[in-house]
Each structure stands twice: as C-alpha cells, then as structure tokens.
Design brief:
Helix content is 7%, strand content 38%. By secondary structure, it is mainly β. The strands form three sheets. The chain has a 15-stranded parallel beta sheet that branches. Residues 6-18 have low confidence and may be disordered.
Length: 461
C-alpha cells in the first residue's frame, strides 16, 4: 500500500507543468501603465509594457473596443502552439480598436511569428512604411499565421509622391530574410480584411529564397507554403493590390480588387517567382495603367510555374483583364481559363496589350474557355507584347472573343499563338485563318451570360 502511495506522489511530482494562458488588457480610455494589465479593471493604457512580457502559447493581447491608441506593438519571437495560438484582438463592444502607428516603421511589428492570430483591429500608419510587418529570420519553419477581420488603411502616405515606390512596403507585409538558417512560413491566412487607401502595396509577401528565378541545379529552395488570401476587399492602392512572391501551393480567392496602380506601374493581384499557385473566384475592376503599362487586376508574373488564373470576373480596367509574363525564361506551364472579361483594356495603353495579354518570352502556356466581351473603349481583345522578346508558345482553344467593331486582334499574336476551336465575333482585323462561322453567335452569347452569372454566384458562396 505504501508503495502504491509513493508511486502516486511521484507521478504527480513529475507530471509536466501545464502553462496557464494569460490575457493582457489595454485601454487608452481607462487604463494605466502602472496597472498589472491582467484584467479589464487593471488594464494598461498603452503598448509600452508588452515588450517586458515573455508570451506563452494561448496568451492574448486584448485592446478595448472603440479606443484609439498611438504607438506600435513591437514583439520578438511571438510563438504559440498548434492548439494554443497567441492572439492579438479586441474586447468589449463597439468599433474595432484603432491603432495609429504614429510614424513608427510599422503599427504592428512581429519577428518570427508562428501560431498567431491578429484580428478585429483598425490600423493606420500614414507616416510609417507598414501597417503590419511580419519578419522571419534565422527561424526555420514558422507555422500558422492568421490575419482576419482587419481594416488597414492610410499607410505610407509619401509613396503617393514616388513614381516607383517599393513593392515590399505597405498595408500587410510578410518578408522572409536570408540567413545562415533558412526561414519560411507554412500556413498564412489573410481573410475578411478591408485593405484600402494606402501605399505602396496592399498585401506584399515574399522571401529572399527564390523558387525558380536564378536557382542553380540541385539548389535547395524554401518557398512560403500554404498562403491563402480570401474574402478581402482591396482598393485605392498606390501600387499593387496583392503582390505575392516565392510561394508554393498558394491561393487568392473570393477577393475584390479595384483602383490599384494609382501612381506606379502595377497589377491588382499577382504571383511572382512562385509554383502551383491559383487566382480564382475574384472580381477586379477599375485598375489603373500608370505610365500606360500593365493595369490588370489578375496576373501571373515572371519566373512562375504551373500557376492558374480561373473563374474570375474582370471588367472596366485600363489594362488587360488577365496577364501572363515570361521575361526571364524560367516560367512555364501556366494557365488562364474559365474567366470573364468585360470592357477591359479601355485606355488604349502600350502596344501589345489586350483584354488578355501575354508579355515577353512566355512558353508552354494554355489559354482556354475564356470569354472576352469588348466595351466601347476596348482597343484590343488579345495582344502579345515584346519585353526583350515576344511570346514563344501559347495555345488558345475554346475561347470566345466578342469585339465592338474596332477592338482588334493583336498584330504580334501569330505565329506564337496556336489556335483551336475559338470564336471571334466583330473583330475587324482578324487573320483569315481564324475566321469562324458567325451563326454560332447566339449560342456563345448564352454561354457568356451563364458564365457571368456563375462567376458572380461563386463569389457569394
């Protein structure tokens, strides 16, 4: 009996200690930095005490709803666990807590974040360069970063006065730095955010570790994995809406992007130096073509492989609805399919741009089952543009191009474009080998209507 009691005592002594999560409260209205900060009644007044805390999995930093705070949240090695993320959020009822970065580099800066959630906040930083800046360095794999239900605006105001502001600064930025130990994220979710009226970029994600560009044979790569950007509104952006680089297996879906490129050459949402990534079920409109270049809501940029743009609705853009680039010869196998374009390329911008535009030495590309409906100002329905060389190989099949009597077929599309089972209606300069039977026009008009309805319905799921 005594032996059994001893075993019970020893088992209790050596049970692993379970960390009890803590909540830290901040209220500019009623708090005091001399308080303990661990209850609503003992809330702090600012972010100053956060740097003194060593946070544990499950801890929460809670800002009082309706309050306005100036300054920045600055945290190092903020790492929760799979079932106990560290959360930065709000408490109480009312408007989202309002954080003004007050000229700091970022309103929220976190180095090497993993298993964290940032939610239910309004963030501005007009005199700084970032709204939220998450940085990875010497970290290895960092899992599960979630940013949701945020209102991020009025960031990096001086970028509106620069003709080419950096693509690595803006509203929400994640950057993996190169070091002796590689760093990358596995699991990044940006969801239900309103990102607007800011510079330079709305969302910018990237790494110093390349995926395709400049990779030597046998060189190990460390792509950012599991990026999901969904159900966000991105509008009125100095440069790019969402520029996502060095990723594998990412998806941008169910977003609305508009009025990007207000100052600088840009596109709305695009992958660069990425592999097996998707843009789908988004709406893009009124994107600007600064300096008469680009201006598309959806793009697969240079050095990307096996990426897809599908089931999107683009309309009323100065540039193309859809673009594909191949400037550095390391991209291949990309697809543009099942998309709808209405009144795109409506500003008569650079030669070679159309409602669908293929730029530079693109190869092994497939464009199929898209519908392009020219508006009154659409100048080209399809274009190939040279950037140190014209496209090399693009297969077009089962696309419908409805012109307006003046919207043209790009002069440089042939011979790189290989065409099968496409229909061109009311396109005045169509090469004779591509002319089709116009008796099918009613049939294809019904397809166009169905495609529009399906695309819009998909966004509402």
């Amino acid at each position: 009996m005594h032996f059994i009691k001893l075993l019970v005592i020893l088992s209790i002594i050596y049970l692993p200690f379970s960390t009890i999560a803590s909540d830290y409260y901040i209220s500019a209205a009623v708090g005091n930095d001399n308080n303990k900060g661990i209850s609503q009644e003992e809330a702090w007044a600012s972010f100053n005490n956060l740097e003194k805390i060593t946070f544990s999995p499950g801890d929460r930093i809670l800002l009082h709803a309706g309050d306005s705070l100036k300054g920045n949240i600055y945290l190092i090695e903020l790492q929760g666990s799979l079932n106990k993320p560290i959360i930065i959020s709000s408490y109480g009822s009312g408007a989202k807590p309002y954080i003004d970065g007050n000229g700091n580099q970022a309103a929220i800066y976190i180095k090497n974040p993993a298993h964290i959630i940032i939610e239910n906040l309004e963030i501005v930083n007009p005199e700084g360069e970032y709204g939220i800046y998450l940085e990875a360095e010497e970290s290895g794999e960092l899992q599960n970063v979630v940013l949701k239900n945020l209102n991020v605006h009025d960031v990096y105001a001086t970028s509106a006065e620069i003709s080419s502001p950096p693509k690595t600064k803006g509203g929400i930025v994640l950057k993996a730095q190169k070091g002796e130990k590689p760093s990358w994220w596995n699991g990044v979710l940006i969801e239900n955010c309103n990102i607007h009226d800011l510079g330079s970029c709305g969302i910018s994600i990237g790494s110093d570790y390349k995926v395709n560009k400049g990779i030597e044979e046998g060189e190990k790569t460390y792509p950012i994995l599991g990026v999901e950007i969904r159900h966000n509104t991105i509008k009125n952006i100095v440069r790019d809406g969402a520029i996502i680089r060095q990723c594998k297996g990412g998806v941008m879906e169910y977003n609305t992007v508009s009025r990007t490129g207000l100052v600088a050459i840009s596109n709305g949402m695009w992958w660069y130096d990425s592999d097996s990534c998707i843009i789908q079920y988004n709406e893009g409109f009124a994107c600007k073509a600064a300096f008469y270049r680009d201006g598309a809501p959806f793009s697969i940029d240079n050095s990307s492989t096996r990426c897809i743009i599908q089931f999107n609705y683009s309309h009323d853009n100065e540039g193309a609805g859809y673009m594909l680039f191949g400037h550095d010869d390391t991209g291949w196998g990309n697809i543009i399919r099942h998309n709808l374009s209405v009144n795109d390329h409506n500003s008569n911008i650079a030669e070679g741009i159309g409602a669908i535009a293929i730029v530079s030495r693109v190869r092994d590309a497939h464009v199929h089952h898209n519908i392009v409906i020219a508006g009154s100002e659409t100048d080209y329905v399809l274009g190939h543009r040279s950037w140190d060389g014209f496209p090399l190989e693009v297969i077009y099949n089962n696309n419908l191009f409805i012109g307006n009597g003046k919207a043209k077929f790009g002069e440089h599309v042939l011979p790189a474009g290989k065409f099968e089972h496409n229909l061109f209606l009311n396109v005045p300069n169509l090469p004779k080998e591509l002319k089709q039977d116009n008796n099918l026009s009613d049939y294809f008009s019904k397809i166009a209507q169905m495609q529009m309805i399906k695309t819009k319905a998909s966004k509402m799921d």
